[in-house]
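ugh ok fine here u go
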Amino acid sequence: MKIALVIAMLASCAPVQRGGGPVAEWIGDTSSFGPAPVARPPSFIEPYRAVSATIIKAGREDRGAYAKLAHLTDRIGNRMAGTPALDLAIAWAAQAMKDDGLEVRTEKVMVPHWVRGTESLALVTPVARPLRVLGLGGSVSTPKGGITAPIVVIKSFDELAAKAAAIKGAIVLYDVAMPAWTEAKGSGYGEVVPYRTRGASRAAKYGAVGMLVRSVTATSLSTLHTGALFYDPDQPKIPAGAVTIEDATLISRLAAQGPVTVKVQLESQALPDAPSANVIGELVGSEKPDEIVVIGGHLDSWDVGQGAHDDGAGCVVMMQSLALLKKLGLRPKRTIRVVLFTNEEYQVRGGKAYAKDHAAELPKTVFAIESDSGGFAPRGLGVQTKPEVQARTVARITEILTLLAPLDATRVIPGWSGTDVAQMIPGGVPTAELFTDNRTYFDYHHSEADTLDKVDPVAL
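structure:
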């Protein structure tokens, strides 16, 4: 279904023709995103219904994306920036798209190369017990031999400031629970992830010597979840790691009864930047090849699990979208370009490089969409543009998504697209992210549990 969503969306955005018979045009008239509203007849979307139905039917029956994902995850595995595994994934993706009949190239990007080393955590007092820890991406290492220090448990940034006097020389534990997923609000990821990304520097401001964070998930079977942290250049860099929900709550219970001391050791290191690449595959437009629709996902992952949902699924969906159009004999009037971005997880070098290197093309890039919310059943699009055209863009896309009623994928959420395509917004490109029924996504996200068995081939 997810493949069908993407292809149907792009078939409506970048009109296709079969055997020379035109299907009515929509996107590509970029003035419709400009200051002046463009009058459109209520029925402008109707000529797309027949071809969309054809694509949806074919997408439901196709299993090519799952076959690609099986190779990527089982044969290559996780794909951290700077590693040989990511290099293998880049070469594989380029060849796979060539085999599907696309025009393919790679574009060099230098990426950070952070390496995880030996990691350990243990309670020292009031009881001696080993715990589990997973360093956050980009963390500095502990001094040789590790750090033994008291723990200060923090439930909010306000509490951090209130306990400033107790934090100097201590390790801060952010034990902040992620809200459970709900139909109305989705996940609570955005509410708690700042403790992972910014918590180390906030704690260092008050003299903390280390930071631990409760894994950013609402559900756990003693699962560790990593992710990037970002250091404030004005504060000391302190080592930082994630602990399980179970261990975070254990420490909190003990701390409520009296002093708690832990020993943590992280031997991570930052190596010199390494060469990598964005992978680009194109189905060149028949009439307006210089007008581009970008579709993409990010090929890198964290160094745990297989990177199946995050974001192998997004990559193979986009790759298979164009393979399926080729199979159906459908050719767009405008060029559809798959971009598999490198290094989204840490520093977004691939997305930034693409926007910079293709700056001259952005005025003719009529739409950009990425998939980075897991390989689940589609629900709609998050949409983000320049503020002055946001309302009109949302209204237009809401109408287009009526084509996807058979997939129950008609919802539009304004205000957010995706990390990589958002780099094109300053260039005037309307952007979107495919969002899915991702109620279980953060159970696996950035963890050893993000493996192929969690992906449903039918939903994909």
